[in-house]
Specification:
The protein has helices spanning 51-78, 86-104, 112-153, and strands at residues 28-30, 46-48. By secondary structure, the protein is mainly α.
Length: 157
């Protein structure tokens, strides 16, 4: 396999554009999300080809995503006064979507042991949300039963 080398040189008052065919290259595509302007090379997208670099990047990305979901779920579960289950359902749908991304998109870049561990963590978060939704429904049923009993008993003499 012949390696291709690209050299980027900066010249004054000239814009250098590098174009090459990505159809033949296999790798993980990354696009920058920051909007910081700085002098130098502007990158619209990058194709990572080295498997060890892809694995490190995806593990770091998944760890940040799991930490974010954990903090979000903890904040949802710690709100005692929140009777609205819509936030819990949104979090449940978001976790389901994230699980599908892990199973489809990251499966070919990460080893099976790490994918199984990641899916177990996602299942644990999913289980906690489902428990909270079930508990919330049971509490609503209990509250309506108490209100119905009060209405039936009414005032007695």
């Amino acid at each position: 396999m012949q390696k291709k080398h690209y050299i980027v040189q900066k010249e004054k008052r000239k814009t250098v554009t590098i174009n090459f065919s990505r159809k033949k290259m296999d790798g993980f595509r990354v696009t920058p999300h920051n909007q910081i302007s700085y002098p130098g090379i502007s990158v619209n997208s990058m194709l990572l080809v080295k498997p060890s670099l892809i694995e490190k990047l995806l593990k770091k990305k998944n760890q940040r995503k799991l930490d974010y979901y954990l903090q979000y779920i903890i904040s949802l579960l710690s709100e005692e006064g929140a009777d609205d289950d819509s936030a819990l359902h949104i979090a449940l749908n978001d976790l389901t979507r994230y699980r599908e991304i892990v199973e489809t998109k990251y499966q070919k870049y990460l080893d099976d042991k790490y994918i199984n561990l990641l899916l177990k963590k996602i299942d644990l978060l999913d289980h906690e949300i489902q428990n909270r939704v079930f508990y919330s429904k049971q509490m609503k049923i209990y509250q309506t039963n108490i209100e119905e009993e009060k209405e039936k008993s009414g005032k007695s003499r």
